[in-house]
Amino acid sequence: MRGIEYKGLSRIEGPVVITRRSRNVGYNEVVAVYDREEGRRLGRVVDMSDDWAAIQVFGSSTGLSADDSRIEFLGKPMELRVGPGLLGRIFNGLGEPIDGYSDIFSSTMLDVNGLPINPYARTYPRDFIQTGVSAIDGMNTLIRGQKLPIFSGSGLPHNRLAAQIVRQAKILTGSTDGSGASESFVVVFCAMGVKYDVARFFLDDFERSGVLSSVVVFLSLADAPSLERLVAPRCALTAAEYLAYEKNMHVLVVMTDMTNYCEALREVSSIRGEVPSRKGYPGYLYSDLAALYERAGKIKGSSGSITQLPILSMPNDDISHPIPDLSGYITEGQIVLDREMSQRGIYPPVAGLPSLSRLMKDGIGPGMTREDHKDVASQLFAAYSRVKQVRNLASIIGEEELSDGDKRYLKFGEKFEQVFLSQGETENRDIGRTLDLGWQVLADLPREDLLRVNQEFIAKYLEPLVQAG
User: CATH number for the domain including 161?
Assistant: First the structure.
């Protein structure tokens, strides 16, 4: 019977407690744990057998007594209160307000675990999002409803890049040169296990740029219980689903850092005594990440959408580490930041070859960006790939021994990085400007090497640039 309290715990193992299970207990059900010292703590059921239930306590288990503690199964999953008052609010990882104001005025409660989207109900993403960043718009285009993670490393400017995208991202609706009408995003920002200065950076940037009133923030800082990180992204995505599918808004979800989330998942798995998989992570890491990433998209019957921009720091810059490796399988591409480029002062240091957007081909071209977009991007990729080969050769035989053609590609690579990729944090380039810069750097290559671009486009876009000097 619901609401009955059960006294006594069988075992306490860190943040997980074991107790005799009540009848009709459900997986992920919310549980109240009471003790004499700190009163009421919340938890959730994470494992069950015929006679026992494992409960994950949100917070520390310090002070819990196996004999005196009491358990109450609340008969419901963890829920988030949602309503029109969400925007502009700051919550902790459990969805509780921490901005000094009371809870939002609404009776609508949603299960934070969400529901899988019926694949038949999904609408294929095709709408181009202009971020104002040439490295993304020109070569790794972000599409509305896409999940495109940023693969970074410790000390790289992924937070600055994410903040810039939040400030500048818009969906073009009236003109393909960036001058027409546009639709803006509301933002759901989720921080998991980050330091206070990182959270403060984002909040200050949101406030300074005037977007804070259209942002919902969920903060689970480094000093918060690590298990709170497992709930924070689910609360954030529940808020995003409400805004997108109930209020028909375009929502951009930024989640940082997914590596901290996976570390918390490994911690819980270890406490529960599960057999570890690669590097100690649980075998269900793939499906757990997919349960978060797959909550992005567009669905029939709603004009709203959810676009995800997860940030994950690769341990030791290893892109084959389980977290980026599995994320790459689930998401539709990745933006990879390069440490060597960052050390040379290039911002944003987006690595040209490992980065990709699998949905790019469906969101560019006539009527969406510009007719020459696909050709320019393809030619830039091919030429920069040649640059990498020439640089490797130069490191072996010396630059003086290179052929004139190879030296020309070295100069192209330098110009590509300094003119096309590199831009200021406040520089907001429309797609027309980005493609013009692409033609500007391609102008340094021999015409006979431009095999991936239509000759009509060369006459229309490249020749006028050359004639103008």
Answer: 3.40.50.12240
